[in-house]
Structure formats: C-alpha cells, structure tokens
Automatic annotation (TrEMBL):
Keyword terms, alphabetized: Cell membrane, Membrane, Transmembrane, Transmembrane helix, Transport
TM spans (from-to): 7-27, 79-97, 104-123, 143-168, 180-198, 204-226, 233-251
GO terms for cellular component: plasma membrane
Taxonomic superkingdom: Bacteria
Membrane topology, from the record: Multi-pass membrane protein
Lineage, uppermost ranks: Bacteria, Pseudomonadati, Pseudomonadota, Gammaproteobacteria, Alteromonadales
Localization per Swiss-Prot or TrEMBL: Cell membrane
Family (UniProt): Belongs to the 4-toluene sulfonate uptake permease (TSUP) (TC 2.A.102) family.
UniProt name for this protein: Probable membrane transporter protein
InterPro entries listed in its UniProt record: TM_pro_TauE-like (IPR002781), TSUP (IPR052017)
Length: 253
C-alpha cells in the first residue's frame, strides 16, 4: 500500500504516545489501532500490524527497566509460561473470531480496572516494600497471567491493565516493578501472537515498522519517567488511562 507523508507522521506521533502510555499503564493501542484503520487497513490487519510496534516498544522498555535495576527476573519462567500460552490461544482466536467481540471486551476491561483503582487501589498499587509472592505459592496468579495472555493475544489494546492486575494484584509487585515485568511479559506473548499473524499473512510491514519507530522513542522516555515519578502519580496516571480507554472503546466504530 502507498504510505503518504501524512500517514507516516500519524503513525510516528501515535506510536510515540502509545509507547509512553503502554510503558506506564496500558491502552496505547487505542491510539494506534484507529490510526492504522484510518489508512484503510481492515480491523484484523490493523490488529496484526499493530503488534510490530508493540514488540519494539516492549524490547526498548525492557532494556531500560533492566538498566535501572527495576526488572525482577527471579520468577520470570513461571510468570512467562502462562502468558505465552495465553498469547498463542488469544492470537488464534483473533485470527478466526468476529471482530465485533473486541469492543465489548475492551470496554468491560477498562471499566473494571477503573472501578478497582477507585474502590480498592491497594489491589493494583501495593505499597513500596510489600512482600512479593512467587507464582508457585500463588495459584490464582496462573489464572490471571493466562487470562492476560489470552486477552493480549486476542486484542492487545488494554492488556497492560490485565497484566498489572496479575502482577501487582496477585503477586504484589509495586507499580514500577510491575510495569517492568508487564513489558517483559508483553514482549514474549506478543512475539507468540506475531508468529500466528505472520503465518496468516495479516501483517503489513511498512506501516508496522514506521509505527514501531515512534513507539521505541516513547517507551525510552516513559522508562525515565517511571523511575522518577512517585507511585501515587503512577497510580493516577493509570486511572486516567483507564478512563481514556473506556471513552475510546465507547466511541469506536
């Protein structure tokens, strides 16, 4: 397809913003998916192409968090296994399920997360110094991590919120470390879903790579912000993003 200058700028700018939003909270795909669809991509192709940018931003953020000593990898295997498995399942569902399921699923997730942050903020934002649970000692974390993988493989938009619910809620990581592990998990289950979409020939690589350039810069900046801002600021940024995600889901076609 022909990429105009306007399209290129749209992808870079939305990618940059999505890189920041996805690294600090979630829901950045609410910007990038419409941007891809404005260019004329069908919903399923936009959904698949978007994963190129998500992959690049996840690599960038993961490296940044690791550099600052915020990426805890002691329990990485048990955390990754259910999310990768879920990613394969979700991507397979996305390749064949009707796209009409995306909007109600996204909206329901956003509203639930907003409600949790308002009513029970300690669930999603544990205090610094809260003891961390290991996956093997927390059976419910397997359910949440698998669910996050399925959701992310299926729709991607808003998966950061589901991952934070699992990592901060059930495993009790503080928001900075939960965000670091979130992008770590996102990278691997996105790679899993990317393989499915490549097999189904659903990815347009040129717009995907242009989008990725923007997300990479945004993710790099977001890591620096995550390290410096207070947990309270991160919590309210997360809440704001859930509201924006809810509005985006309600207004989407």
């Amino acid at each position: 397809m022909e990429i105009t200058l306007t399209h290129g700028l749209l992808l870079v700018v939305t990618g940059f913003l999505a890189g920041i939003i996805n690294t600090l909270a979630g829901g950045g795909s609410n910007l990038t998916l419409p941007a891809l669809m404005v260019m004329g991509l069908p919903a399923e192709v936009a959904n698949a192409t978007n994963r190129v940018g998500v992959t690049v931003q996840s690599i960038t953020a993961m490296i940044g968090f690791h550099k600052h000593g915020k990426l805890d990898t002691d329990d990485k295997g048990p955390i990754l296994l259910p999310t990768i498995l879920g990613g394969f399942i979700g991507a397979a569902l996305a390749a064949y399920a009707p796209s009409t399921l995306i909007k109600p699923l996204l909206l329901g997730t956003m509203l639930l997360m907003a409600l949790i942050i308002l009513v029970r903020p300690a669930i999603i934002a544990p205090e610094l110094g809260t003891p961390v649970n290991r996956v093997k000692d927390t059976p419910k974390s397997w359910f949440w991590l698998t669910l996050a993988g399925i959701y992310g493989g299926f729709v991607q938009a808003g998966v950061g919120f589901v991952l934070l619910a699992a990592l901060a809620g059930s495993l009790r990581y503080d928001l900075v470390r939960a965000n670091a592990l979130k992008v770590f998990c996102t990278l691997f289950f996105t790679l899993a879903s990317l393989l499915v979409f490549i097999k189904e020939d659903l990815i347009l690589w040129v717009p995907g790579l242009i989008l990725a350039a923007g997300t990479m810069v945004g993710a790099h900046l977001a890591v620096k912000l995550a390290i410096k801002v207070s947990p309270k600021v991160l919590k309210w940024f997360l809440f704001l993003m859930t509201l924006c995600g809810s509005v985006a889901a309600m207004l989407s076609d």
